[in-house]
Specification:
Strand order of the largest sheet: 1-2-3-5-4
Pfam families: S1
Keywords: Chloroplast, Plastid, Repeat, Ribonucleoprotein, Ribosomal protein, RNA-binding, Transit peptide
GO biological process, one term: translation
CATH topology of one domain: OB fold (Dihydrolipoamide Acetyltransferase, E2P)
Oligomer: single chain
Helix content: 25-40%
Number of strands: 17
Order of helices and strands: HHHHEEEEEHEEEHEEHEEEEEHHHEE
Mean pLDDT: 77
Organism: Hibiscus trionum (Flower of an hour)
Radius of gyration: 52 Å
Family: Belongs to the bacterial ribosomal protein bS1 family.
Length: 408
């Protein structure tokens, strides 16, 4: 065992040389020497690209400075013509065409081909009161005519209105309806001690109490619709006056004297009763209630009673109608004793009354012809007034050959 150790002890290892220790650094040196050309190529390529890009920018800058319109087909003249094509007068009161492209709770934005969009508020969107512009049919895509009423200082955008245009059209419409003497419907929206305010064609008109056929207050008429006729239409003075009496008189004109209508007692007065006959207040005078004397109207009629009455006369200008139940009595006093019988026989009695009126008119015409033969008119067997017939020569009859009547 000891000899073996001695054998190993005698062994000697040669020391490491410096050349063998430098192997690894030599490899590192070889790698560094191999990569250097690649890095240089990349750096050169980037520098070249930067230089080329810089030259492009410099060339573009020089072109913009020296010849900005070079290669551009749209000339300055074309640009000026385009401006003139879309130019418009932006003064207040000018009417312009525009297209709605956006709406919200406050109004709408309108494209009028100006430098900025125009604004239409909900208050200027309609002559009627609305909460949203879409209630007036103003939706994106709508093209209409607007009028310029102002300008917003914040962005110099224009303020538009449709209400002003509708306002002008409404006055024109009222003037036309007045000229045609047309009956229109008006909704009562307010009142004062002198009358009520009615909404007609989007305008607020005044109806004096003297021009209302029924004896009612402004509170009772509120929110109701009344037939109306135009009395005065003055846009310059903003004056619109209407009449309910004239409208009702016109509607009752077709009834004529002798017509039987259904009415409701509205109120009682010492001199008679006011009867509502379809919106018109007619007077049933105490003397026209019955052939018998009526000392107290309340013993015969009460407010709210429904009855049949006959029209005696009506004043179209003043809107007054005179009524009668006396002419409908089969026998005098029936209106007091048996009003039901009077109403049952009303049409029959009215027909008899009209026949008597026709006979009276025929007799009056005959008397007129008797005293005015030169009128050139004759009376037929039916009581109709017309031209002379062929049987009667215009120069009259020759009575010279007619023998005198002999005494019996």
């Amino acid at each position: 065992m000891a000899s073996l150790a001695q054998q190993f002890t005698g062994l000697r290892c040669s020391p490491l040389s410096s050349s063998r220790l430098s192997v690894k650094p030599k490899k590192t040196q070889k790698v560094s020497t191999f990569a250097s050309p690649i890095v240089s190529v990349i750096a050169d390529a980037q520098t070249k690209a930067r230089l080329e890009l810089k030259q492009v920018f410099e060339d573009a800058y020089e072109r913009c400075r020296s010849a900005p319109m070079e290669g551009v087909s749209f000339t300055l003249d074309d640009f000026q013509n385009a401006l003139e094509k879309y130019d418009f007068d932006s003064e207040i009161g000018t009417k312009v065409k525009g297209t709605v492209f956006c709406t919200d709770g406050n109004g709408a934005l309108v494209d009028i081909t100006a430098k900025s969009s125009a604004y239409l508020s909900v208050q200027e969107a309609s002559i009627h009161k609305i909460k949203h512009v879409e209630e007036a049919g103003i939706v994106p895509g709508l093209r209409d005519e607007f009028v310029i009423i102002g300008e917003l200082e914040a962005d110099d955008s224009l303020v538009l209105s449709l209400r002003s245009i509708q306002y002008e059209l409404a006055w024109e419409r009222c003037r036309q309806l007045q000229a045609e003497d047309v009956v229109v419907k008006g909704k009562i929206v307010g009142g004062n001690k002198g009358g009520v305010v009615a909404l007609v064609e989007g305008l607020r008109g005044f109806v004096p109490f003297s021009q209302i056929s029924s004896k009612t207050s402004a509170e009772e008429l509120l929110d109701k619709e009344l037939p109306l006729k135009f009395v005065e239409v003055d846009e310059e003075q903003t004056r619109l006056v209407l009449s309910n009496r004239k409208a009702m008189a016109d509607s009752q004109a077709q009834l004529g004297i002798g017509s039987v209508v259904l009415g409701t007692v509205q109120s009682l007065k010492p001199y008679g009763a006011f009867i509502d006959i379809g919106g018109v207040n007619g007077l049933l005078h105490v003397s026209q209630i019955s052939h018998d004397r009526v000392s107290d109207i309340a013993t015969v009629l009460q407010p709210g009673d429904t009855l049949k009455v006959m029209i005696l006369s009506h004043d179209r200008e003043r809107g007054r109608v005179s009524l009668s139940t006396k002419k409908l009595e089969p026998t005098p006093g029936d209106m007091i004793r048996n009003p039901t019988l009077v109403f049952e026989k009303a049409e029959e009695m009215a027909q008899t009354f009209r026949q008597r009126i026709a006979q009276a008119e025929a007799m009056a015409r005959a008397d007129m012809l008797r005293f005015q033969p030169e009128s050139g008119l004759s009376l037929s067997g039916d009581g109709e007034l017309g031209p002379l017939t062929s049987d009667l020569p215009p120069e009259g009859l020759d009575l010279s050959d007619v023998t005198e009547a002999e005494d019996s």
